[in-house]
Amino acid sequence: MTEPAIGTSEAIRVLIVDDHASFRSGLRALLGTAVDVAVVGEASDGPAAVSQTGRLQPDVVLMDVTMPGGDGISATERIVSTWPHVAVVVLTMDDGDASLVRALQVGARGYVLKGAQRPELLRAVRAAAAGEALLGADVARRLSSYVVAPSADGGRSGRPFPELTDRELEILDLIARGRSNTEISDGLVLSPKTVRNHVSNVFAKLDARDRADAIVRAREAGLGGGPDRVR
Asked: What is the spatial distance between Cα 42 and Cα 48, in angstroms, rounded to a whole number?
């Protein structure tokens, strides 16, 4: 049974990445029951996922983290850095898997257990397409422990929040200056959706409860001062 689209006039374009054809087929069938979701392609390994993302420009990539032909973590990092408007949701057998935390660190928007039922799967896809980060409490706690861990160089680099990409750090700095998403979008010449995606990634990696929490952490780390980068 299909259901009406929720708050969208266009279908959410999804790319499925998994090395098992039968699993991809099952996901395609599940997603096909929702009128606001359209599966636009499939890939069986990391390199193919990157290639297909560049060609198809999906809104959401459902990414397996462990594949013989190329791991999903490297593919996730490549996709997020090259096409930040594309949201990656990790497919995993176990939400206690350390590779899941690593995938979130490099920019994945959330995760779906491979045994998830239809409502959970659609919720994850819709949340990612809306620019939201979807994390369970246990995963968020473990991700936070990675975030506060000392860097490999013992902190000598002086760069705050090494888990953030350069763009994410720049946006966090602007958030700490009190800039809204619209102001950031205009100042950096980025689409509103791209900014929302970056902001969600920042909040997820910092395990920040909300914007105010992120601002406090950023200012404690020395961000939010000096010449304004938004012109």
From this structure: 9
